[in-house]
Each structure stands twice: as structure tokens, then as C-alpha cells.
Amino acid sequence: KNVIQCVLFNVVFVKKVLYCLILLIFLFFFIYEASSEKVAVFNVGITSGIPFYGDDSILASNDVVNGGEINRVLVGLSADVSFNLATPIKLIAGSDLLADFIWGGSSYSNHLDYSFFCGIKVYPNLFGFNTSIAYLLGSRTDFINNDMEDSISSTAWGNGFRISVGYDFAYGRKNVFAPALGVYYRCIPRGSDFWDNVLAAYISFSF
């Protein structure tokens, strides 16, 4: 009898939990559809910029390649999701990736910079103009091959910050597919008393 009562109690409890989950999902979609602006917005974009490396060994490996005819490409990706906290304020969380390819002949010094950030974005009633500041956690992996070195190594994960300024042409407009343009600056400690600074421009689209 006790076993049956226990089973019945668990079944009733599970049903209540399921009903609550269904109610929460219904309320979420009701608020989402009823609001004049989406609760969450996803942004995906491409970037290009200039990394300023603080590690002398990385600068030296770049100089080795620079001794001959070199090629260089800097390209990256950026993605984030933003949530409305108030009319002009959003909570943002996302990730940046910037690849710095440097090569010449058989030598190369390639660097992959990746980071995750979380912070606040503000639209100060200037149409689509916005600015953000975020906490940053990032690292960098280096792929080096030259006459003196052939290695793949990664830096320690560092805690830094990210600041951006941009203009979103789709902000406050419904059923409009338009880009956002802007620039961001990142400062990331790499350990051993040095850090990297990255200045990049981006173009992104919201979904």
C-alpha cells in the first residue's frame, strides 16, 4: 500500500511539474509575440581588425616571416544574443573569433584569437546608435613554422574587457533586414605579464 501511494504521489508531482512547464512556455511565447520588440535578438557578423601582440616571441616569429615576401589576411566572426532588460538597455552574451594568417614561402606565423563575453549594450535614444561594455574571457592559439621553430601553442585564458560602438540600421523597425556596423576594442591578458589589444570593425545582421 505504501509503495502504491508513493507511486501515485510521484505521478501527481510529475504532472504538476509538466503543467507548470507548459504554462511557462505558453507565457513566454505570449509575451514574445505580444511585445513590440523581440525579447531576444541573435546577431551574426564578419569582422576584420588589427591585433597588437604583447608577447615578444610572437613579434619575433612574425618578423621572421616578414624577412621575405609575405602575405597577410585578418578575418573573423562575431556572434551574440541580446535580451531586453529595459527599453534602451540590453544584456548581451557572445563570442569573437579573429584569425591572423601571416605566411611567406614555406614559413608562416598564424594566430587564432577566440573569446567569450557578457555585458550591457545601451541605445541612448539616438536611433540605432549603441555602445556596449562587457567582461571578456579569451585565449589565443599560435601556429608557427619557420627555420628556427615549428610549434603549436596556446596562451593561458585571460580575463579582460570589450568595448564597442556601432549603429544598427534595423533597430526599432519591424520586418526590416538591415545591417549593423561598428567597431570594438578588446584588451586580454595572456599571462607572463603581457596582454593583447585588438581593434576590429564588424558588419552584422540580426535574426
Structure, explained:
The chain has an eight-stranded antiparallel β-barrel with strand order 1-2-3-4-5-7-8-9. The protein has 207 residues and is an alpha+beta fold. The chain contains two helices and nine strands.
Explain the layout of strands and helices.
Elements: H1 2-34, E1 40-52, H2 56-66, E2 71-84, E3 89-104, E4 107-122, E5 129-145, E6 150-154, E7 158-168, E8 179-191, E9 194-206
Antiparallel strand pairs: 1-2, 1-9, 2-3, 3-4, 4-5, 5-6, 5-7, 7-8, 8-9
Strand content: over 45%
Q: Strand count, sense and closure of the main sheet?
A: 8 strands, antiparallel, barrel
Per DSSP E runs of 2 or more residues, the count of β-strands stands at 9
Which stretches are low in confidence, meaning pLDDT under 50 for 5 or more residues running?
1-11
* N to C succession of SSEs: HEHEEEEEEEE
Question: Which geometry do the CA atoms define?
Answer: elongated
> Mean pLDDT, as a whole number?
83
- Spatial strand arrangement across the major sheet: 1-2-3-4-5-7-8-9
The rounded Rg comes to 24 Å
Question: What is the SS-derived class?
Answer: alpha+beta
Alpha plus pi helix count = 2
Helix content: 10-25%
Distance between the termini: 55 Å
